[in-house]
């Protein structure tokens, strides 16, 4: 068995990515990584006992290339006896409508399309081709964006319905696998476009760091992420315990579907700071808000030291009000900007 297949099989078992009887969608773009993933999983599916659907998503960004890409993916899937599906999405239109970057919009629509295909085929798993080099790049990108410990702990082999069987495989080994087995793939021209941050990290920042600082920078970044991931798992377990200990009430207005969450200040402030931040992060998610670092820290400070009647005005009309014994989170007017106070003076 080829060493890439051996390593992938080992990682599948170690991380419990597939089980006998599973059905999975494999995202295949026609690039080296995803073609390798499709080939490896097509071989291993009979070893483990799962089934596959190869899925190609046309983002509408490269009309001169996508026709050949789709034909190649379909041809390879047919040769491997794997079902094939394709779907088109309008990334440019979605990006303009939601005011997102092209990268962000493409990612959202891609996963939405893949989950739709999975639902149509009764699949519970989506396999994507992130590899070890992608992991190092992602850690640097998250550092540049100011991510916390959870962010820089990197991508996980499994996150909910997403699995990454190649996450421990380096790019050079993926290319060698395709060369050894004489497997065709296509290069995506957008992978060299310097407008995208990932490409600048891949083609400019990492080579600079390798040349000027440490030739093993990618491996060092992955080791750091692995250590942080273990710490993050422990903190998540402790957060679950702290979440249950903090006195809280979650109610919902039946007419407006607006949630209101109260937490007891006394139980909250007795938790360690690391757990306070995670509790607030979870509260903001539950109320339907983004959980940015600045907002988390504002809420933590208000809960610990805020005077009675103090309130925070956060994004899209979210109000966080401080009372002597509790802190409340709610959208008094629904999700939308407004200028009123939660506690009129």
Please state the second-level CATH architecture of the largest domain: 3-Layer(aba) Sandwich
Biggest sheet overview = 6 strands, mixed
What's the total count of β strands? 11
Which regions contain 5 or more consecutive residues with pLDDT less than 50?
Answer: none
For the biggest β-sheet, the strand order reads 3-2-1-4-6-5
Alpha-carbon Rg, integer? 23 Å
Give the fraction of residues assigned to helices.
40-55%
CATH superfamily of the largest domain: HUPs
Q: Domain count, please report it.
A: 2
Summarize model confidence as the mean pLDDT.
92
CATH topology of the largest domain: Rossmann fold
Outline: elongated
- Residue share in β-strands: 5-15%
Task: Give a verbal description of the structure.
The chain has 345 residues and is of the alpha/beta class. The chain folds into two domains: 3-228, Rossmann fold, CATH 3.40.50; 246-330, Uridine Diphospho-n-acetylenolpyruvylglucosamine Reductase, domain 3 (2-Layer Sandwich). Helices cover 52% and strands 14% of the residues. The chain has helices at 3-15, 32-48, 63-80, 91-98, 102-121, 132-144, 149-152, 171-180, 197-212, 217-245, 265-269, 273-287, 293-305, and strands at residues 23-27, 51-58, 83-88, 125-127, 158-159, 162-163, 248-252, 259-264, 311-313, 319-322, 326-330. It has a six-stranded mixed beta sheet with strand order 3-2-1-4-6-5, with helices on both faces. Helix 1 packs across helix 2 and helix 6 crosses helix 9. The longest helix has 29 residues, at 217-245. It is elongated. The relative contact order is 0.09. The mean pLDDT is 92.
């Amino acid at each position: 068995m080829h060493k890439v297949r051996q390593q992938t099989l080992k990682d599948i078992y170690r991380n419990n990515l597939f089980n006998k009887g599973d059905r999975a969608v494999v995202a295949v773009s026609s690039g080296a990584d995803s073609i390798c993933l499709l080939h490896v999983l097509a071989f291993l599916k009979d070893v483990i006992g799962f089934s596959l659907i190869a899925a190609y998503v046309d983002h509408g960004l490269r009309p001169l290339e996508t026709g050949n890409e789709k034909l190649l993916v379909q041809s390879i899937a047919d040769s491997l006896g794997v079902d094939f599906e394709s779907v088109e999405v309008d990334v440019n239109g979605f990006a303009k409508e939601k005011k997102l970057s092209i990268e962000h919009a493409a990612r959202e629509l891609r996963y939405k399309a893949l989950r739709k295909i999975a639902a149509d085929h009764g699949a519970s798993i989506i396999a994507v081709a992130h590899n070890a080099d992608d992991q190092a790049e992602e850690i640097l990108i998250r550092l540049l964006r100011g991510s916390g410990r959870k962010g820089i702990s990197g991508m996980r082999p499994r996150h909910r319905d997403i699995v990454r069987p190649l996450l421990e495989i380096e790019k050079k080994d993926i290319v060698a696998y395709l060369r050894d087995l004489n497997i065709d793939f296509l290069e995506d021209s957008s992978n060299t476009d310097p407008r995208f941050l990932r490409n600048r990290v891949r083609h400019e920042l990492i080579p600079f760091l390798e040349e000027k600082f440490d030739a093993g920078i990618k491996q060092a970044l992955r080791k750091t992420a692995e250590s942080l991931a273990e710490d993050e798992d422990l903190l998540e377990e402790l957060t679950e315990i702290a979440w249950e200990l903090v006195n809280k009430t979650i109610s919902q207005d039946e007419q407006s579907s607006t949630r209101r969450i109260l937490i007891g200040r006394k139980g909250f402030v007795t938790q360690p700071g690391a757990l306070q931040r995670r509790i607030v992060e979870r509260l903001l998610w539950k109320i339907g808000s983004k959980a940015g670092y600045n907002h988390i820290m504002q809420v933590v400070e208000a809960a610990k030291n805020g005077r009675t009647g103090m309130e925070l005005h956060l994004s899209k009309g979210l109000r966080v009000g401080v009372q002597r014994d509790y802190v409340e989170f709610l959208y008094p007017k629904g999700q939308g900007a407004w200028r009123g106070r939660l506690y009129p003076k």
